[in-house]
Amino acid sequence: MTESTALYDIPGPQARRRHLIYGLASTVVLLAPAGWIIHLLFDTDQFTSTKWMPFEYEGIQELLLRGLGNTLKAFAYASVLSLALGAALAAGRLSEHRVLRWVSGLVVEFFRAMPVLVMIFFIFVALKVQPLPALVAGLALYNGSVLAEVFRTGVHAVARGQGEAAYALGMRKTQVMTYVLVPQAVRAMLPAIISQLVVALKDTSLGFLIT
Amino acid sequence: MDVLTDNFSLYGEGFLGTVELTVYASALALVLGFVMASFRVAPVGSFRVFGTVWVTALRNTPLTLLFFAVMLGLPRFGLVLPFEVFAVLALGCYTSAFICEALRSGINTVPRGQGEAARGLGMSFSQTLSTVVLPQAFRTVIPPIGSNLIALAKNSAIAGAFSVTELLGTYKTLSELGYSIVWTFVWIAVGYLIITLGISALFHVMEKHWGVAR
Predict the structure, then answer these.
(1) Confidence class of residue A2 from pLDDT cuts 50, 70 and 90?
(2) What stretches of chain B show up as alpha helix (H) in DSSP?
(3) What does pTM read for this prediction?
């Protein structure tokens, strides 16, 4: 807790005793609702063996595993597609052609401002596709647009001299991008990319709403 | 165009529903996020543990699952509330975890000397936090809190699937009435754009007013 010690002194013996009392009191206050919930769970017979029996059936176990498999499948498709889409849109936004920049900027801003669920519903209802492709397409469009912004800020964050040096060596635009800027940008942006993929994984649960 | 003009009241109802959900859930999320952030930096260990558990549990649960837990779980305990209240609870608690983390990272950007000077003046922990550190932290966290609230507005679409009146839910009625699905969705999209762009404009103004000059 080194970063927060600026907020309070390292407690002395008296403060430690006080903190212990606070700690015990707050633990009681915070655990009381938890205990009450557990009491209610017992009260409503949630822990009787009959309520947990179904999980012993092979059919239900299989169902749960199949659900897990489908979640992972949707996540795999959605993440690969959104990474590809993100790369394409970021390339578009960084392009030297104004039209391309504008179009990809418009696409990114639109899909970032839309709820994922609206897109999934639109694809599912209006285009009449199967639930899985609808879910994957909706997630890919949304997360691809967010990732495009992540990639773009990453490329902008690479020190200017890197690109200039690469041009001075005689590399072309594409080479500067793929050999110099993108590898450094991806490394810097890896935490943001991973947390966006986690968002995609969590959002696969929206698939339930369209089945 | 007919879709909008013929069903203006339906769209308006849905739009207002989404706005209402967003406003109430934002208020809840801001209050809870503030409380949790102060818990997470508190000197008393049990508060820190509680804040960490709260954030970790809520941030890593899909919002759909949280909605199910709230809408189906709480009535089992005899807690029967209108669906709107349940939706506000789920959305607010979910977003509070993100607000808490944004606030905490803002607290970390305040120079250490500020807290040390406040303590040197003899201020207690709550005084240091509320009069010195948080006002400065608030200025740096305006943009991330704005994007969290925009995410909240977009997430409120999930509430539509749990029979709460909101914008996305209008499509069901309209497609039953036989209107063109594409245009129905165009106007829903416009509604969401108005809300999200509105929030982002509001936070832009706030950042201009209070943000840290860089």
Answers:
(1) very low
(2) 2-6, 8-40, 45-59, 63-68, 74-76, 83-109, 112-120, 125-127, 134-140, 142-155, 170-176, 181-210
(3) 0.85
Q: Is the ipTM of this complex over 0.90?
A: no
Domain positions in chain B: 2-210
Burial of A22-45, coded b for 16+ CB within 10 Å and e otherwise, reads: bbeebbeebeeeeeeeeeeeeeee
- Quick check: A205 contacting B, CB < 8 Å? yes
CB contact under 8 A, B128 and A26: no
- Counts for chain A of helices (H) and strands (E), in that order: 9, 0
The domain tally of chain A equals 2
Q: Give the CATH number for residue A100.
A: 1.10.3720.10
Chain A contact for B119 (CB, 8 A cutoff): yes
Residue A87 confidence (pLDDT): 92
Kindly state whether B183 is in contact with chain A, defined as any CB-CB distance less than 8 angstroms. Answer: no
Is residue A78 located within the same domain as residue A151? Answer: yes
Q: A29 lies in which domain range?
A: 11-47
The per-residue pLDDT for range A67-76, each reduced to its tens digit, is 999 999 999 9
A88 shares its domain with A158: yes
Residue A114 inside a domain? The answer is: yes
Q: How far is A190 from chain B (nearest CA, A)?
A: 19
Residue of B nearest to A21 (CA): B44
Helices (H), A44-130: 49-52, 58-93, 98-113, 116-125
- Specify the CATH class of B2-210 in words: mainly alpha
CB < 8 Å from B in window 24-63 of A:
24, 26-27, 30, 37, 40, 44
* Same domain? A132 vs A194: yes
Minimum distance, in Å, between the CA of residue A180 and any CA atom of chain B: 28
Flag if B168 and A40 touch (Cβ within 8 Å): no
Which of B21, B36, B38, B46 to probe by mutation at the A interface, max A CB count within 10 Å?
B46
- Candidate from B46, B60, B171 with C-beta closest to A23: B46
Shared domain check, A110 and A23: no
Of the candidates B97, B50, B31, B92, which has an alpha carbon nearest to the alpha carbon of residue B67?
A: B92
Q: Which of residues 5-34 of B touch A (CB under 8 A)?
A: none
A104-140 confidence digits (pLDDT tens): 999 998 998 889 998 998 898 888 888 899 999 999 9
Q: Is residue A159 located within the same domain as residue A80?
A: yes
- Say yes or no for a CB contact (<8 Å) between B188 and A202: no
Better pLDDT: A4 or A84:
A84
By the 8 A CB rule, do B113 and B68 touch?
A: no
